[in-house]
Amino acid sequence: MRITDVEAIHIRMHEVKKQCDSGQDALIVRVRTDEGITGLGEVDSSPLAVQGVINGAYSHQLCCGLRQLLIGEDPFQTEYLWQKMFRNNIYLGQSGILFHAISGVDMALWDIKGKKLGMPIWKLLGGGFHKRLRCYASVLFGDTPEQTYLEAMRLRDLGFTAVKFGWGPMGKDAKTDVALVAKARAGLGDNLDLMVDAGLVWDTKTAIQRAEAFQQYDPFWLEEPLAPHNYEGYSQLSKATSIRIAAGEEQDSLEDYRRLITEGQCDVIQVDLTRCGGFTGAMKIASLAASYHRPVANHGFTTYINVAAALHWLNSIPNALIVEFAAQNNTDLRNILTKQVIRAKDGYLEIPQEPGLGMDLNEDTVAKLRIT
Ligand SMILES: [Mg+2]
Questions:
Q1: Could you tell me if residue 357 is inside a domain?
Q2: At what angle do helices 204-214 and 231-240 cross, to 10 degrees?
Q3: Residue 23: its pLDDT value, please?
Q4: How far is the CA of 17 from the centre of ligand 1 (A)?
Q5: Each residue of 65-91: pLDDT tens digit?
Q6: Domain span including residue 57
Q7: CB 51 within 8 Å of CB 66
């Protein structure tokens, strides 16, 4: 089997609001083969920048569009092709946009392998740890503590056993920060797990103060309180609190994750399959984390392609903790982009059993919302 084409498809809602929501547009990668099998992948990054990395012309030996590196190649050679894409683009940097673009391609190649062999990706990866995985409902903090309280009750009533609130007004001042977490806990009650995603808002000492103040509300983890590369700060925070510190969605290379674990001493390692080098990258990150006795979770706030990829990956590793599942009310794209719509039941997500990723594009939506 040979690769015949690689498309980077930019989908965008007619109206995109200026809000913390990466589910309003999407960059989908579709890889075609001479046997008629196609693979799907997704990238959560700047869509036009990713298109440039994929469609770009040959510039020189260390900078060449991924598409032309892949055409004519065997899609089963995922590790070899990953290294080929990386090695031929070293000038793009050792983390960032190159890793994001490779992620979408790598995901699509694994989808092709699964479809050809009639197996879900988790089986190709040697997994099969779970029938279903516990997920947490992932939403933004309300604009006020009171709105956060109402949202917490809504999610509790939907049957979730864990909920994460993030970003929004967090970081405004000490009183507001604590009130947001207090109201989130009040709305969830004592029996649900509460995750707090600070959204990169504090310096190290403020983060230590907030961790102390949040302790009485029993957070399951405190996520991204500091700037992504403040590894020294993460280490100080981690030593100062018994609350688990979670981070990783801004990291993408294996080297970045090594620093997050060994220098930052983070407890829960978060990995976005659409940014970290796809399955090929994510499996290495999971192994690295396991070697330091760290659990991992996915990051995903985009489409169900990302969620499906996360489920295949988390079902293939021994240190899966929980699944992020976006439960924000105001994003429609994910519900119309793919034929399959993933739903939580009693706070759990079923592991996909279809060949490959098990996801198909809704071509009507693609025709309507494709920009380029
Ligand atoms: Mg986050």
A1: no
A2: 30
A3: 82
A4: 19
A5: 999 999 999 999 999 999 999 999 999
A6: 3-118+363-369
A7: no
Instruction: Please state, as a whole number, how many other Cβ atoms lie within 10 Å of the Cβ of residue 345.
Output: 10
Q: CB within 8 A of 183, min separation 6: which ones?
A: 145, 146, 148, 149, 152
Residues of the chain with pLDDT under 50: none
CA of 68 to the centre of ligand 1 (A): 34
pLDDT, position 289 = 98
What are the residues whose beta carbons fall under 8 Å from the beta carbon of 157, sequence distance 6 or more?
Answer: none
The CA 224 to ligand 1 mean position distance, Å, reads 6
CATH number at residue 21: 3.30.390.10
Burial degree of 52 (CB within 10 A; 0-12, 13-18, 19+): middle
> What's residue 22's pLDDT?
77
Same domain membership, residue 294 and residue 156: yes
Residue with tokens 């105001």: 330
Contact 253, 300 (CB under 8 A): no
Compute the distance from residue 199 Cα to the ligand 1 centre, in Å.
Answer: 6
Ligand 1 centroid from CA 166, angstroms: 7
* Residue 263 confidence (pLDDT): 98
The residue count for the chain:
372
End-to-end CA distance of the chain: 27
265 three-class SS: coil
* 70 CA → ligand 1 middle, Å: 33
CB count in 10 Å sphere of residue 234: 27
CB atoms within 10 A of CB 239: 9
Query: What is the Å distance from ligand 1's center to 164 Cα?
Result: 9
Residue 175 in any domain: the answer is: yes
For residues 67 and 142, state if they share a domain: no
Domains identified in the chain, total number: 2
Decide: 255 and 86 in contact? Cβ < 8 Å: no
